[in-house]
Amino acid sequence: MSLLGFTSSLISFTPPPPSLTPHLPSLSCLSTRIRSPLLLSVRNLDYKCESQASGLYMEPVKESVELNRNLYANIEPYETGFLKVSDLHSIYYEQSGNPSGHPVVFLHGGPGGGTAPSNRRFFDPEFYRIILFDQRGAGKSTPHACLEENTTWDLITDIEKLREHLKIPEWQVFGGSWGSTLALAYSQSHPEKVTGLVLRGIFLLRKKEIDWFYEGGAAAIFPDAWESFRDLIPENERGCFIDAYSKRLNSDDLETQYAAARAWTKWEMMTTHLLPNEENIKRGDDDDFSLAFARIENHYFVNKGFFPSESFLLENVDKIKHINTTIVQVCVTFISTVILRALLGKQVIFSDK
């Protein structure tokens, strides 16, 4: 989920070099270039190595700004597989890029959105060991669209199981929209395993955010798309669209589930970009994708993300203040980002793209 969604076309990133450099596959004591996973308004920094008893130290010596609006070239994974994370669930994962590179795990949105081959293109394949996985019930993970044993805390456990399975001591975490929510929750649970955070399209899963998007606020910006979403629900049930859709997405009748899933998914896909993206909108016609996306996303929203309090992520932000973090956000939806930045004291890159 993205509050206005305009953040799905990627934007910019200034890397946090000190957290990355200890994990480079090879280093010389002359200089090395720290590479960003993103390519728009990227700041590259040159570092020189100094050997110290406590380990490698990287001193910044030069700063330059490079602009490139292209993502990296398409690549294929060098490994794919399924990891059994419980008696019920198995998650799909893949690795691409440099097998000896700096590990980065990509956390997809939704919940329920699954990964796509294009997600690999955010990262420099020569520098990064790129790990993608489909969260429980999403994408290629099984069982499909399953809500049982599917909570934020289950997903955090899965991320740790995947890290251990791949024998990765620690990694950079990249998440957009719901992926940013999960990235914050994971890093707060396992801060010692996170070398850096890149958060795009911040979503803190607070009631005010969900209500704005699903209870009529966004309708003022996308009135035509809202009509289809609204009209599936009878007038006497429109007091809470989240609950009304939950009833249908969990119906005993599969066709009722599909109809609700298509309407839910099309509403979100039609609002993912400020200008319509036909390829995205067509995903709402894919019943397999829509069912997982809508059922899982609605399940998490009904249960308030399974957090013990509405501001849980903000209340626990002190646990990750030491982690180098970059936040990328469009200017029109930056309130959550400004709050988070104030608490984290981190850099925020705003974009109107």
Automatic annotation (TrEMBL):
InterPro entries: AB_hydrolase_1, AB_hydrolase_fold, Peptidase_S33, Pro_iminopeptidase. One of its GO terms (biological process) is proteolysis. Keywords: Aminopeptidase, Cytoplasm, Hydrolase, Protease. It catalyses: Release of N-terminal proline from a peptide. Residues 103-246 form the AB hydrolase-1 domain. GO terms for molecular function: aminopeptidase activity. Its EC number is 3.4.11.5. It is an enzyme of class 3 (hydrolase). It is found in: Cytoplasm. One of its GO terms (cellular component) is cytoplasm. Belongs to the peptidase S33 family. NCBIfam families: pro_imino_pep_1. This is Proline iminopeptidase. It comes from Salix udensis. The lineage of its organism: Eukaryota, Viridiplantae, Streptophyta, Embryophyta, Tracheophyta.
